[in-house]
Design goal:
The chain has 15 helices and seven strands. The protein is of the alpha/beta class and about 400 residues long. Helix 1 runs parallel beside helix 3 (about 60-85) and helix 13 runs antiparallel to helix 14 (about 360-380). The radius of gyration is 24 Å and the shape is globular.
Length: about 400
Amino acid sequence: MNPNLYFFSSKRLANWKEEYLNHIYNENLKLLNQISFLASTKIKLEQMLNFYLSKQAIACLEFVSIHLSEYQYFSDMDDYLSSYSGNENELLDTILFNLESDFSEESTYSLQFIQYTKSRNLKWQSFPSKMATKSLSQALKIQSNLLPNKDSKYYKKYKHRLKSPSQTGKILDDTKYIQIKRTDESKYLQLIHAKNKLTELWPEGTEVFTVLTDRIHLVRSKNLVSFSHFTEQGITYMNLWGRDFLDTMDDLIHENSHHHLNLILKKFKILKTKSSDEVYYSPWRHELRSLYAILHSVFTFTCGALLFEVLIEREKDETAKTLKKFRDKIRFRFMEESYNLSFSLQDLQKAVLKNTFTNKGKLLILELQSINTRHLKKIDSLKPILKKASLRKINELQSSLAKKRKEFNLSF
């Protein structure tokens, strides 16, 4: 990472992370004072918050914040129901509408409420009180799985998800569909080697990685690569199966860059308005996405392109010998990302002209554009040394992107 760039300085990121840690801690203290608890409950929550603060466990503090907010939400709903005397069907429609509007797509509260309304054994009137009790119970549980821990011994085991909720169309009890298995030695070494090689070849990138990634969980599931959550700052979930050594290096940087952008979004207002309209073509997913999703893609894949740039520049170094068999793939991935990024940066720049971004957002896009401009200038020297099959794919990609630009040439 270039420390001269505002959004990529490891020192600045460390300061922003410290600020956010204190912010989310204080936000939880405010919630404790706003909500009525038993004295013993409040004391226990205060002790937990202080423990998380001492461990710099941002994701744990975010977890508490979410569940305390949900506890307050459902407690208020319960109070409202106890005094409501209107039409029952209208009330049910209103509750369902609010649950779908107030919670993210990942939330299952609306599905659970529907189950309550359809079940003979469940009284829907008890739904808010039970959800409030459940939320408070969750907030009171120490989330050891979200505590910062960079110790490699925790990679020795992984979660194998046997079935996803999308396969059944209903809410699943994770304990029934997840097995804890011992990581194959070769996969464990693949991850450790990838982290070590990043340190050797890209010290600047590793500094940013060390600041932002607090813990890695190994997971395995069908069609899974890696993922992270906005509300779990610094926690990475990675799949090593079906991924080679280079993929693993890329995945580490990719998920770290999600933490990177999420921290920026928690620090600054980047978009003036967050529209969910999916009108921007994504060259990575080959489908239409929202501007917010395109921003995430551009940021994370820019970090990937930076990784490939470094690997290309250092391919003759002694420490890069283990990457020799990946040289063509590294060059191809660098070019592929550079062209994809150039495509989506055009959409982000149009959004800038439309005044969709704040001043800080405009600065972020400017930095991403400057990186991509530098990368595009390096492509001509790489094409002659690319293998024929890879070069053919690059030419096909350029042709495809040109067609997509004509098809999705947004005018503002």
